[in-house]
Structure formats: C-alpha cells, structure tokens
TrEMBL record:
The lineage of its organism: Bacteria, Bacillati, Bacillota, Clostridia, Eubacteriales. It is an enzyme of class 2 (transferase). Its cofactor is Mg(2+). Keywords: Magnesium, Metal-binding, Thiamine biosynthesis, Transferase. This is Thiamine-phosphate synthase.
Amino acid sequence: MAGGVLHLVTDRKAAPDLVAVVQAAVAGGVQWVQLRDKTAAALDLFHLAQRLAPVCRAAGAGLLINDRMDVAVAAGCDGVHLARKSLPVAAARRILPVPMLLGASVHSLAEAQEAVQQGADYVTFGSVYPTRSHPGQQPAGLDELARVVDAVPVPVLAIGGITPDNVEAVLATGVAGIAVISAIQGDPDPAAAAARLRERMEASAHRPRHPFPRPRCIAISDQETPLRLREGGRG
C-alpha cells in the first residue's frame, strides 16, 4: 500500500461526538481506528464499539480496541492494541482468538523486540516528535524509529507529533504507517485533516518494509465463542 496506512487513535475528551468524528475521519482516508478510552466502563465501551464497527466497515476501515480484549471479542472487532500497563503480550496472545490482530505500544528497540518475541502482530513506536498527548516525554526521534523498523520482522507504526509537514520524513524510515490523535481529532474538519495526511502519504515514494495487514472484519454473533474462533484457525 502506497505510503502505508493511516490510523486514528481516539480521544473521547477531544471529541464528545466520537462517532461523528470517526465517520468523518474514515471518509477522509483513515484506514484503521483504535478505540481508546481508559475510563469507560466495559458496557459503555462495548456499546460504543458496536456503533463504530459499522461506520468503519462501511468505509473498509478496521477497528481495534485499546487494552480491553473482552470488549474487542464481544463487539466483533478486528483486534486489540496493548498499552504499557495492559496484559503482557504473551498472556494476551494465549487468550485472544487467533484471527484477531494483536498490537503493542513500545518506546524502545528492546521493548519492540520483546513484544514481537511474545507474539505481537505489529508494534506502534513513539513518540517520534514532541506531542501534546505526552507533553513531558522526550521524543525518540527518526533515527531510533528507523532502528526499530530495521530490527523487527513485523509492521511498525509511528506515533507522536506527526503532521502533513513531517510525514514524509517518517515514511522514509520504512514504517508501515502512522498513528495520530490530535492531527485529526484536534482539527475542526476531521475529514479534511485525514485527507491532507492521506494525500501526502499516497504521494510518497517510500514503501513499508513490512506492510500492515488489511482489516479482517471479524463478525461475531451472539452464539459464536472465542473457542470456536480458535478452532477455525487463522484466516
């Protein structure tokens, strides 16, 4: 895929009407949405995921849930993204239905290698640049990002302070794509913001070292269980 994939990581505080923001973002070119809400109850997150899933699928986009594997499985999402204080990757890998993607946030080469060794399908590395979401965090920079991309055999997403003005330099490292929060949600026109990023990415001559998988669009009925998904094997 030219220029890699564009991920949106949600922030409920920045977007009270998250469904409308996601609908605009996927219309503008976002290919993956990661639903992240650290304070929501499981039931509320489940209902929100159920509302977002058809929006994403109508646009051909994938839906991941941050941290909450139970919600991801119950809502029929494409996968789970683990944060620093989530379950270890190896533990999550043992219990996650096998068709689902498993990603992890990492902040160093050692963390990236450990996550891959434990079974992560992809890693998100950052922060690459200074970012409002982590104001006190020292950015890792492009050189460290390139080291991670070169060292691990799975797709690497870059996150942190990425804008249309610097996305070309990020793509030059061979990343599978970028993940953004405020670059889209902080814009009064999320569709236009996504389109600007997508346009720059599509125009890039750089290609991912390891391309990001396409959405599997797993559909889980009320009768289907994680065990039955396991028995079906990987798609």
